[in-house]
């Protein structure tokens, strides 16, 4: 396959088009060699390290599928958004951020993070903040904090090459994820709108859609419209008081029952809870005797 390159920025697709449990990475082939989101192709990432030291590993956010192969670069600086620093210093923090602590899925997730995603405690050595400029040599990158998907999610803009790395604001037809304990629906929408105003020509998604060329506005509108579609379906189902289990059994997000439960049932519940909280905050929904109904 032909390499996709923008100046010194190289696109490294993950297996299966970067579908979970993988992602797509970017490699900056400049004076300061760097990898963004080392969760793509283990063989290619290993080759980079063999060619010479990779000096920086930059994480768009802490989710496990974006860092599986970070352990290939033990001597690189680890750059993460400051709000997610704790997630690299102990697995319990990851589980806490996800809202998995104390749930029936905690143990299976702990094992997955350790064995499948190579979780290792590692102290971030540089903290990213919105507006930071990172220089690699000829290549300069601007950090854009885009919370919502996760609290510290960042996108990365390379103004000279016109490239914007979207991370997990991935513009897929599935729509956005905002199910972490510290995720937020309205911040997700705000973050996508922020991206629409960036004058990039190439948009690189961490999953599936890969490299998108041209105007992203229509795609971004469709992407956030999925949020309102989910909410409309929830409202329609609340034609009488319903328990959270009943709501989850509708599979509004994933469309049909899917296995494994620790992934899909957990995700469906997490996203529905966010919609319930959003409707409650707007005074449109109330809870009585463990049942939710419209006001
Ligand atoms: Zn993610």
Brief summary:
The protein has 295 residues and is an alpha/beta fold. The chain has helices spanning 15-18, 42-51, 91-98, 106-116, 185-196, 217-237, 244-248, 261-281; strands at residues 4-6, 9-12, 25-28, 34-36, 56-58, 77-81, 126-128, 133-135, 140-145, 154-158, 163-167, 202-205, 211-213, 285-288, 291-294. The strands form three sheets. It has a seven-stranded mixed beta sheet, with no helix packed on it.
Order of helices and strands: EEHEEHEEHHEEEEEHEEHHHEE
Number of helices: 8
Total DSSP E strands: 15
Taking Cα atoms only, what radius of gyration do you get, to the nearest Å?
A: 19 Å
How much beta, percentage-wise? 15-25%
**Strand-pairing-aware structural class:** alpha/beta
Helix content: 25-40%
Query: Which runs of at least 5 residues are low in confidence (pLDDT < 50)?
Result: none
The CATH H-level homologous superfamily of the largest domain: Ribonuclease Z/Hydroxyacylglutathione hydrolase-like
Largest sheet, in brief, is: 7 strands, mixed
According to CATH, the fold-level topology of the largest domain is: Metallo-beta-lactamase, Chain A
């Amino acid at each position: 396959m032909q390499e996709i390159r923008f100046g010194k920025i190289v696109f490294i697709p993950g297996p299966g088009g970067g579908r979970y449990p993988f992602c797509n990475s970017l490699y900056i082939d400049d004076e300061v060699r760097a990898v963004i989101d080392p969760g793509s192709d283990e063989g290619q990432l290993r080759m980079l390290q063999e060619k010479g030291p990779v000096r920086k590993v930059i994480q768009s956010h802490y989710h496990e599928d974006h860092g599986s192969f970070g352990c290939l670069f033990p001597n690189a600086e680890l750059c993460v958004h400051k709000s997610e620093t704790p997630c690299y210093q102990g697995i319990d923090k990851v589980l806490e951020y996800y809202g998995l602590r104390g749930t029936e899925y905690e143990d299976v997730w702990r094992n997955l993070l350790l064995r499948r995603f190579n979780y290792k405690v590692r102290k971030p050595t540089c903290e990213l903040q919105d507006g930071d400029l990172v220089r690699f040599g000829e290549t300069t990158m601007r950090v854009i904090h885009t919370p919502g998907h996760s609290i510290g999610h960042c996108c990365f803009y390379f103004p000279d090459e016109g490239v914007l790395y979207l991370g997990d604001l991935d513009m897929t037809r599935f729509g956005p994820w905002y199910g972490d304990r510290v995720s937020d629906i309205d911040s997700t929408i705000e973050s996508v709108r922020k991206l629409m105003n960036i004058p990039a020509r190439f948009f690189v998604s961490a999953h599936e859609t890969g490299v998108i060329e041209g105007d992203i506005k229509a795609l971004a509108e469709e992407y956030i419209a999925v949020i309102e579609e989910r909410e409309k379906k929830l409202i329609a189902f609340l034609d009488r008081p319903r328990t959270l289990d009943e709501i989850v059994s509708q599979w509004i997000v994933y469309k049909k029952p899917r296995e494994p439960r620790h992934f899909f049932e957990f995700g469906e519940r997490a996203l529905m809870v966010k919609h319930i909280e959003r409707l409650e905050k707007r005074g449109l929904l109330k809870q009585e005797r463990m049942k939710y109904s419209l006001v």
